[in-house]
Amino acid sequence: MKSRKPNAAEGDLYGEDQPVFAVAPMIDWTDRHCRFFHRQLTAKALLYTEMVVADAILHGPQEKLLDHDAAEHPVALQLGGSDPEKLGAAVTVAREWGYDEFNLNVGCPSDRVQSGTFGACLMREPERVGDCLQAMRDAANETPVTVKCRLGVDDQDIEESLDRLADEAIRAGVSVIWVHARKAWLEGLSPKENRDIPPLDYDRVGRLKRRLPNVFVGLNGGLRSVAVANETIADLELDGMMFGRAAYQTPDLLSEVDHCIYGEPERAIDYPALIAVMEDYAARHIALGGRLNHITRHMVGLFNGLPGARRWRQVLSTKSTGSEAKPAIIREAFSHIRLDANQEAA
């Protein structure tokens, strides 16, 4: 499947001879607590931050925006913006926090990014995208710089729009392109509708890969099964898969990644150990002034389909919200789950 020749700067993230599995950047979802939780389920997946706007890094609370737990690695910082100078400066700041990759958002269709003329709006300005990526690469030293885009926006022709975007990325020295395989309709559809209504076109992503065999092309959009996604990218000769809502809403599937994608020994989730780790993590967060629900809101989808999952969700949703909520609530919720004989809940 691999005919690409990764840049030396891509290091271990994209230089291996197996597909790359990533959890997509999702605003308000993939914060540092979500990423710590996901990392307990997969050691190998590449985890993305929420999109962080370059201006916020330059003028906002940098520690709050950029700090993360060492356990999260490999972790990529996704940036939003359309000013090359600001994006380069933001990468210079963020570089000190040790991220494994910097990614430019050219796909988000929200009103917030439209008002700032970045995100999916940049599909209309491929030359500017190239300039932004060049500035980020100049500031990143040896850290990989990548781009995540759509097929196009509104009435653009997806053959021309995606090829032009990819060509500008390559001009800037970027050779990793993640593609959400839908158009974004900036006029007439909400951000939520943009995740479902524009039809998926995986074949278009496959055509991009055939055109650019030496470029990493990864697929995003509508993927819900690790095994099926692996077959899909193999059929299209793509290099990686990126899961969004499925990984967040049914996080158990992340436990399949290390075995199915990276060839690690198959291993069942040790749920009691997972609960203990998350209790300890929550205790540390609360000791620093945080709240329990900052963490538990990302755990609600765990145990989906198992006996007791509904009660697990109820306990976490109702008892974790108060300022006095304690980490033991996680174990209380877990006590309602009925596992098989060798993994009984405590």
Automatic annotation (TrEMBL):
GO terms for molecular function: flavin adenine dinucleotide binding; FMN binding; tRNA binding; tRNA-dihydrouridine20 synthase activity; tRNA-dihydrouridine20a synthase activity. The keyword rRNA-binding does not apply. It is an enzyme of class 1 (oxidoreductase). The record marks 105, 192, 195, 310, 313 as: Interacts with tRNA. It comes from the Bacteria. Residues 23-328 form the DUS-like FMN-binding domain. InterPro entries: Aldolase_TIM, DUS-like_FMN-bd, DUS_fam, DusA. Its cofactor is FMN. It catalyses: 5,6-dihydrouridine(20) in tRNA + NAD(+) = uridine(20) in tRNA + NADH + H(+); 5,6-dihydrouridine(20a) in tRNA + NADP(+) = uridine(20a) in tRNA + NADPH + H(+); 5,6-dihydrouridine(20a) in tRNA + NAD(+) = uridine(20a) in tRNA + NADH + H(+); 5,6-dihydrouridine(20) in tRNA + NADP(+) = uridine(20) in tRNA + NADPH + H(+). Keywords: Flavoprotein, FMN, NADP, Nucleotide-binding, Oxidoreductase, RNA-binding, tRNA processing, tRNA-binding. Its EC number is 1.3.1.91. FMN binds at residues 78, 148, 180, 220-222, 244-245. The keyword Repeat does not apply. Catalyzes the synthesis of 5,6-dihydrouridine (D), a modified base found in the D-loop of most tRNAs, via the reduction of the C5-C6 double bond in target uridines. Specifically modifies U20 and U20a in tRNAs. Belongs to the dus family. Belongs to the Dus family. DusA subfamily. This is tRNA-dihydrouridine(20/20a) synthase. The gene is dusA.
